[in-house]
TrEMBL record:
Pfam families: Transgly (PF00912). This is Transglycosylase domain-containing protein. It comes from the Bacteria. Residues 88-167 form the Glycosyl transferase family domain. Pathway: Cell wall biogenesis; peptidoglycan biosynthesis. Keywords: Signal, Transferase. InterPro entries: Glyco_trans_51, Glycosyltr_51/Transpeptidase, Lysozyme-like_dom_sf, PBP_transglycosylase. Transmembrane segments: none annotated. Residues 1-18 form the signal peptide.
Length: 196
């Protein structure tokens, strides 16, 4: 009961930076509108890495929506962000939430968004990545330092292979494609580039 009272008091004392779905939609438009669409396989890899049931559940309950709420700089933490998550979920579609996440989440090396991460880790445009490379990048937002391919290649490869397995389970790729990508070596450019 004390936690509920603390959450309620914090919410009442903290003004919403966006109070309506229209204001959240305007925040989204400022963040994403000028960017070209992302490759479907890269988006499928992110969903597999973070929340395989993303498109099957209400967006407000999604870990991806929770991250977008943080990306949009809504205040609070944990349960205190739930009303903001609901606001984002009411304002944006699944595709818009995923696009915002993919373009703004942290991938390590000072990189925010898949495009920057593709350049930093592979020296390639996002559209030129292999399935194995896309799966590896999707593995990074969970913990970029923990899956750094130069420092902990075994953990990085295991996480990439997990993402490939989740993609196959969801039907985003075939089990044959997943097996072929798992067989590929864990690659990256040397040295890794920084986005800073």
């Amino acid at each position: 009961m004390r936690l509920f009272a603390l959450v309620l008091a914090t919410l009442l004392a903290t003004p919403l930076s966006a109070q309506t779905p229209q204001e959240v939609a305007a925040l989204y438009a400022r963040e994403i509108a000028p960017l070209p669409p992302l490759p479907p396989i890269a988006l499928a890899a992110l969903v597999a890495a973070e929340d395989r049931a993303f498109f099957d559940r209400a967006t407000g309950l999604s870990p991806i929506t929770a991250q977008v709420t943080q990306i949009l700089n809504f205040p609070g933490w944990g349960l205190m962000r739930l009303p903001y998550q609901a606001l984002v979920a009411n304002a944006l579609s699944h595709d818009e939430i995923l696009s915002l996440y993919a373009n703004r989440v942290f991938f390590g090396l000072g990189c925010f968004g898949l495009r920057d991460a593709a350049r930093a880790y592979y020296g390639k445009a996002l559209d030129d990545l292999t399935l194995a490379e896309s799966a590896f990048l999707a593995a990074l937002p969970r913990s970029p330092a923990h899956f750094n391919p130069e420092r902990v290649p075994d953990k990085a490869r295991a996480r990439r292979d997990f993402v490939l397995g989740e993609m196959a389970k969801s039907g985003a790729i075939s089990s044959e494609d997943a097996a072929a990508a798992r067989a590929a070596p864990l690659t990256h450019q040397t040295p890794l580039a920084s986005c800073r």
